[in-house]
């Protein structure tokens, strides 16, 4: 690790290592990357606070892994810069090779060496020049790292094929942690695991990284994983970040329809906006702050449409998808609105919407349900 304390700007103008407050701060600015004629990254800018976790999520081929590989130093960009802890890693001709970046990388399959034991795999990540000499010190550090990732010390003598997929991912993390990186990059690190193991492994890994205060960037195509794992979610589309914000904000206040639909189910309705109210087939709906007026597309999450026996909206169950704890219920709206409810030219019966409900018994086909809307809707341009 390069750790000369100085505040002298280098040739690129960046302050050279090491302002303690900046340790682990990642700044990516204007990254452009092409493969042949295809521009894969088209000017990506991203800030990650020290010790925080960012998930980069987006459709397949949007450029997520390429961005991670540029940060790791496995690829070079045509334009833009990467700085970590105030140290320039890449900018113009300035270039720090991958093995000098203080960056850990955990691949999708863990990429353990099959011919080495778990202990040897982890020891491979150790900088032995920083350890007191001797095999005893190495063994102790390996045991410590295994404990950090909640694995029994006895596993050290096994080979990767003798442990489970979730254990392999934790060994891969321990190997990456052995170098005490300032930044951990997780490239679809949980996606090869089955659902239960994925959640448990993700939780362990998140806790280890959080407790160690290591800045983390996770690439995933799994929206739920991104929303649950990260402090900050960066939504990538066509080589650009469409939105970077907290999980709650990107889910409840997506910047556009594509982002809304990528992050979860969305009910889209034609609507007419006046002031802070939109009128649509569900009646008058409160809007999140917007400058839009007139015709819009309204977005609600299905869970915002609640079954309520006194609700002003009526619909008849068309069909149901049962998922155990929850069902997605499709309803055809009927015109029997309550007296006193606003109506408009857009409020019409026959429109089909989806809601979520936890009681599968109420959702038999043909049942009439009364509904109300909770929270605010988002307005997008009418033709997006
Ligand atoms: N080494 C390479 N040579 C040529 N094209 C590449 C290379 N690496 C990536 N690409 C192309 O760049 C685009 C973005 O790929 P990338 O792997 O970054 O996307 P991704 O968002 O991570 O996708 P996925 O979720 O499927 O892994 C794809 O069209 C891919 O084919």
TrEMBL record:
The enzyme's E.C. designation: 7.6.2.9
Classification via CDD domains: ABC_Carb_Solutes_like
Molecular function as annotated in GO: ABC-type ferric iron transporter activity; ABC-type quaternary ammonium compound transporting activity; ATP binding; ATP hydrolysis activity
Protein keywords: ATP-binding, Cell inner membrane, Cell membrane, Ion transport, Iron, Iron transport, Membrane, Nucleotide-binding, Translocase, Transport
GO cellular component, one term: ATP-binding cassette (ABC) transporter complex
Source taxon at top rank: Bacteria
Domain ABC transporter: 26-263
Pfam families linked: ABC_tran, TOBE_2
Top enzyme category: translocase
Entry-linked SUPFAM superfamilies: MOP-like (SSF50331), P-loop containing nucleoside triphosphate hydrolases (SSF52540)
Keyword Heme: no
UniProt protein name: ABC-type quaternary amine transporter
Organism: Terrabacter aerolatus
Encoding gene per record: fbpC
């Amino acid at each position: 690790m390069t750790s000369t304390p100085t505040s002298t700007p280098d040739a690129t103008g960046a302050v050279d290592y090491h302002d303690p407050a900046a340790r682990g701060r990642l700044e990516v600015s204007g990254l452009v990357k092409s493969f042949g004629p295809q521009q894969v990254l088209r000017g990506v800018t991203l800030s990650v606070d020290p010790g925080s976790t960012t998930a980069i999520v987006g459709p397949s081929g949007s450029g997520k892994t390429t961005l991670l590989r540029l940060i790791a130093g496995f690829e070079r960009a045509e334009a833009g810069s990467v700085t970590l802890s105030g140290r320039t890693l890449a900018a113009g001709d300035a270039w720090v090779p991958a093995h000098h970046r203080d960056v850990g990388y955990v691949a999708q399959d863990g990429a353990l060496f099959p011919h080495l034991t778990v202990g040897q795999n982890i020891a491979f990540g150790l900088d032995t020049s920083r350890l007191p000499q001797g095999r005893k010190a190495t063994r102790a550090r390996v045991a410590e790292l295994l404990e950090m990732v909640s694995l029994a010390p006895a596993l050290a003598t096994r080979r990767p094929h003798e442990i489970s997929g979730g254990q392999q991912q934790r060994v891969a993390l321990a190997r990456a942690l052995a170098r005490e990186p300032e930044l951990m990059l997780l490239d679809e690190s949980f996606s090869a695991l089955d659902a239960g193991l994925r959640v448990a492994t993700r939780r362990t890994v998140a806790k280890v990284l959080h407790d160690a205060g290591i800045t983390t960037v996770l690439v995933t195509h799994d929206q739920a994983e991104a929303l649950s794992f990260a402090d900050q979610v960066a939504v990538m589309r066509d080589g650009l970040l469409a939105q970077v914000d907290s999980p709650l904000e990107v889910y409840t206040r997506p910047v556009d329809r594509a982002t809304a639909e990528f992050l979860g189910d969305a009910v889209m309705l034609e609507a007419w906006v006046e002031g802070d109210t939109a009128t649509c087939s569900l009646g008058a709906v409160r809007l999140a702050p917007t400058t839009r007026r007139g015709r819009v597309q309204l977005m609600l999450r299905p869970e915002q449409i609640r079954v309520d026996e006194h609700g002003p909206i009526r619909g008849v169950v068309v069909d149901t998808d049962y998922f155990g704890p929850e069902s997605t219920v499709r309803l055809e709206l009927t015109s029997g609105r309550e007296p006193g409810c606003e109506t408009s030219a857009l409020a019409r019966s026959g429109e089909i919407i989806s809601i979520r409900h936890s009681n599968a018994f109420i959702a038999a086909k043909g049942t009439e349900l009364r509904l109300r809307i909770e929270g605010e809707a988002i307005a997008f341009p009418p033709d997006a």
